[in-house]
């Protein structure tokens, strides 16, 4: 069964990383799409650039819509995992899956150089989302109270994952899944 997906991200890349290194990192996704290079990745939407590495700005720009099957998630995860060491800092990757019945499922992935960098990006994203939601109803002071609690939860979570009491040390991962309330990608 095939679905249409949209992948969107602006991923900061370390200075000195070449286009060839990025393409090698993205080999699983390129192979899945039967593409030889990033420039060959075309989006179903004509106004979307696909996957483009801006060597001047050191940004990997992903704005791609395509039709996918079951093994796409594996190809995408492998590519993000390979890309992690080339990232300047952790970044979010929005993945939206459009179902045949008109519903959509949004996932938030994170890619970055270390598990800690990803954890901090998740913290930043969560606080931004919660603050935006709360500020519709409450003033900034009340929203800041909840943000402080979220910060405490993230601190505790990191200590549990990496501290001496952790059952098993988490491996360094270059990507991680998260969920986000459904939002339409506006371009």
Describe the fold and architecture:
The structure is a single chain. This protein is of the alpha+beta class. The protein folds into two domains: 3-114 and 174-179, no CATH class; 116-162. The chain has five helices and six strands; from the N terminus they run E-H-H-E-E-H-E-E-H-H-E. The protein has helices at residues 19-25, 27-32, 72-83, 115-134, 140-162; strands at residues 3-12, 50-54, 59-68, 91-98, 104-111, 175-179. It has a six-stranded antiparallel beta sheet with strand order 2-3-1-4-5-6. A hairpin with a 5-residue loop joins strand 4 (91-98) and strand 5. The longest helix has 23 residues, at 140-162. The relative contact order is 0.17. Residues 168-176 and 179-187 have low confidence and may be disordered.
Q: TL;DR?
A:
With 187 residues, this protein is of the alpha+beta class.
